[in-house]
Structures are given as C-alpha cells and as structure tokens.
Design goal:
The protein is mostly helical. It has one domain. It has 2 helices and no strands. Helix 1 runs antiparallel to helix 2. The chain is elongated, with a radius of gyration of 15 Å.
C-alpha cells in the first residue's frame, strides 16, 4: 500500500512539474496564450494536481 501511494505521489509530482513548465513557457511575456481560456484551464489543472499531491502526502504521513 505504501509503495502504491509513493508511486502516485511521484506521478502527481511529475504532472505538477510538467504543467508548471508548460505554463512558464507558454505564458512568458505577452504571448497570445497568456490570459486565454486554455491558460486558465492549465492553471486549474495545476491546482488540482497540487491538491491531489498534498492529499497523497497526508496519506503517507498520517497513521491510518
């Protein structure tokens, strides 16, 4: 169970890093992507991934 949670944590961390990097590349400066509905959706997905990551970490740290 702990190994499975650790794998999920690693997957969420990868999603967070990839999404963050994509947003940094696409929204840098005054690109057409900045402020678009797609950019807003990317930010939403990043927040969801961070929340999932946080919840998985809590499952690993807190005793059942």
């Amino acid at each position: 169970m702990c190994q499975e949670l650790q794998e999920l944590v690693n997957q969420e961390l990868s999603v967070i890093q990839q999404t963050s990097n994509a947003l940094n590349q696409c929204c840098h400066g005054h690109s057409a992507f900045a402020g678009s509905s797609e950019a807003v959706e990317c930010h939403r997905l990043l927040l969801v991934a961070c929340e999932d990551f946080h919840n998985l970490l809590l499952l690993l740290v807190l005793p059942a």
